Amino acid sequence: MPVALITGASRGFGYALASMLADRGWDLVVDAREPTALAAAAERLRSRGTGDVVAVAGDVADPAHRTALVGAVDALGRLDLLVNNASVLGPSPQPTLDRYPVADIEQVLRVNTVAPLALTQPLLPRLLAGSGTVVNLSSDAAVEAYPGWGGYGASKAALDQLTAILAAEQPDLRVYAFDPGDMRTDLHQQAFPGEDISDRPLPETVVPALLRLLDTRPPSGRYRAGDLLADTSPAVPAGSGR
């Protein structure tokens, strides 16, 4: 069975993706910061599929936790898909850059930008052995200048560039920056405290766009969920000039 490592998989998009891969019989390594929520999510995933589900609680910004994740993958003996989904928003409400605490923006960058690279590096041999796929969760805040989104947007813009360069350096892999668009998640609610976000799509309605990437394996690049869901022609990276 193929193996996927998905970070931030106790809820939201990470859990929705893990659920659909479990339905397909994948073996899963999943993580999240909160042990109780992760354990409950792992039990639900085990009830859905026939594959193994290994849950490792911790913070992706912690080197010891990343080592534990690599060990869990090694125990399964292969890795076909790495999804760097875990993210933090930063302060809520989000401050403008003139008053953004430096310590907070450093933490956002550690979790959203540095941790995905630090986790990918030791897993590259496993991914290369199976011509695997790396997916880094991006955001429209990476390419649009939204007031108040300086910390989160900068972290995702940097992650986009790391993704593009990794793709150029590792032509035997598929490396995608995947922009899911707005979703009804806890992180999105933090971005709009006190507002009704019930009009945003649920994460499980966005997962099919990523599954399309995994199934068709188009060239490495940056892809938007809305484009993938709306277009039935072969997937083309965003900004390719089509």
Short structural summary:
With 242 residues, this protein is an alpha/beta fold. The protein contains eight helices and seven strands.
**Any idea of the CATH class?**
Alpha Beta
Number of strands: 7
Shape: globular
Would you give the CATH topology? Rossmann fold
CATH architecture: 3-Layer(aba) Sandwich
Give the end-to-end Cα distance, rounded to a whole number of Å: 36 Å
* Rg calc: 17 Å
- What's the main sheet like? 7 strands, parallel
What does this structure look like?
With 242 residues, the chain is an alpha/beta fold. It has one domain: Rossmann fold, CATH 3.40.50.720. The chain contains 8 helices and 7 strands, in the order βαβαβαβαβαβααβα. The chain has helices spanning 12-23, 35-48, 63-76, 102-129, 150-169, 186-191, 207-216, 225-230; strands spanning 3-6, 27-32, 53-57, 81-84, 133-137, 174-179, 221-224. A 7-stranded parallel beta sheet has the order 3-2-1-4-5-6-7, sandwiched between helices. Helix 1 runs parallel beside helix 2 (35-48), helix 3 packs parallel to helix 4 and helix 4 packs parallel to helix 5 (150-169). The protein is globular and about 50 Å long.
